[in-house]
Amino acid sequence: MKVYLETVNRDRQNYLSFLKLADPDEAVVNSYFDSGEVFKIVVGDKVVGVLHLVEIDDETLEIKNIAILPEYRGRHIGSTALQSLIELCRGNHYKRIYVGTANSSIENFKFYQKNGFRFDHIVPDFFLNYDQSIYENGIQALDMLYLVYRFDDKKKED
To answer: Does the pTM of the predicted model rise above 0.85?
Structure first.
């Protein structure tokens, strides 16, 4: 199964529904939607997900959103896409990639750690600004947990 990333150069609006799979608050998605780069996650010839990346500064990127269609989850597609993104960014001037996930998103926290990200910091009460409360795993999403992938901590594999 070939998984690859493809940059979305136009018709970005067609991928908004994917982004809302990972972040149900449309106002929040719209706040970053026009910035950064959107990548389609493609398996074969089918778009099965989207990854949204923004540059924070000259050395820092942030994954604002990564979403895979439910029927394609659990097949290592997200990990393959994330590793492809890391390799795409490796060797550039970037030193780190941040990603945030809710305190209630236990599987996401595990997923990012398995892919080389480490816990960095918390933004308390981040999700209290959402229009509706979010619950996952019986836990209310309250805080944003940020993880970081540091390029200088990783040796480039040959």
So the answer is: yes
